[in-house]
Structure prediction request, 397 residues.
Amino acid sequence: MLKDKIPTLILVCEELYAQEEAILEYWVHTNTVINVLTKHNIDMNVFKNDYAVKILDYYFGVVNQTKEIGDCPVMAAFLEMLKEHDISADELFDICTHARKSMISVAFDMGIASKELFRDISYVFDLNFKGVLQQYSNTIYKLEKQIEVELQENRKKDAVMFQQARLAQMGEMISNIAHQWRQPIAMISAIVQNTHMKYTLGKLESEFFNKSTDDVKKLLSQMSSTISDFQNFFQPNKEKAKFCVENSITETLDLIDFDLKKANIQLVRFPYVAGENVLGYPNEFAQTILNLFSNAKDALIENNEVQNRYIHVRSSVDNGRVTITIHDNAGGIPENILDKIFNPYFTTKEEGKGTGIGLYMSHQIIEKNMDGRLCATNETILENQVGAMFTISLKKC
Ligand SMILES: Nc1ncnc2c1ncn2[C@@H]1O[C@H](COP(=O)(O)OP(=O)(O)O)[C@@H](O)[C@H]1O
Ligand SMILES: [Mg+2]
Prediction:
């Protein structure tokens, strides 16, 4: 029985309870408690009236056996509130232990303090505090679970989004593949026709035949390597790898060269420091570059006031970081949307043209997966023209 364990406290319980207000005053005005409350923006009066007083009532309820240990709804609410304010277990202990100290101080003031009374007060406190800790760790555990579930859902959403973006890019790429195939197909067709003609005329010599076969083989292997390039491009990298930023940009540009030319866009690559490596996901990085180029292209096509369409690409190395900028002269991004463009599904393009995923995905790739920075600003480019400038910065390795 609890009451057998705390005989001294039982004797003075009513007297002490009558001084509840004094205990409260000590409790809420202790420096440690004030510090924790201020640090976490908890109003002192809310703490006192909504929680502290009820917790003391509960404490005395346990002592005079009208309440069960562990059955304290206000404690649950109190813990919930602390959790919302991100209070640590240490701080929780600081707050609670001062309730006990305050009772002891009041016992002193009343002249009823004794070693036995301290022991009894602490005994009930310890019992209660164990319960509190248990509840606290349960809520933390629940919270962690909830966070874990939300994280997983976000990861799933991202995966779907990446997939959508990849499909959209693939669509764009098809025209490039078609273009890259057109020439070898035309050549193969000419070779076949020639061979056929020579054969019908009885003029097909083995030398010509062998050369034709070789040429066709070469052209076919060229076509097949185009497919491999595109396939690699769309294969997400599983592991981080060292890769050369410049090569990656060049390879990506090769894939979309045709699209840019078709849109009359002049690509200017400023002298760059070749051979700088970074650690990350080369295919994802290439997708980011592609996103930035296709946005610049869209913006340039959209703005029909621009006479000469430009995209400037620069790279530099400074302070152990590689910086790449992609800058167009399409007029820039309106200031009021500059802080929204990296949000998922944010697009200013009409339905069917924009998904709003490109920049979100690029941002995730550079900042989350590769620990770099990606930002957008509007900068003057040629002859007082303004355009969006995207800057990627990555740690050199
Ligand atoms: N180079 C640019 N110039 C002007 N606006 C841009 C540029 N790049 C991106 N934006 C703006 O950012 C928005 C989001 O881009 P993005 O995430 O790639 O989605 P989407 O291209 O599908 O619209 C675009 O709709 C556009 O308003
Ligand atoms: Mg885009």
Q: What stands out?
A: The chain has a mean pLDDT of 88. DSSP finds twelve helices and seven strands in the chain.
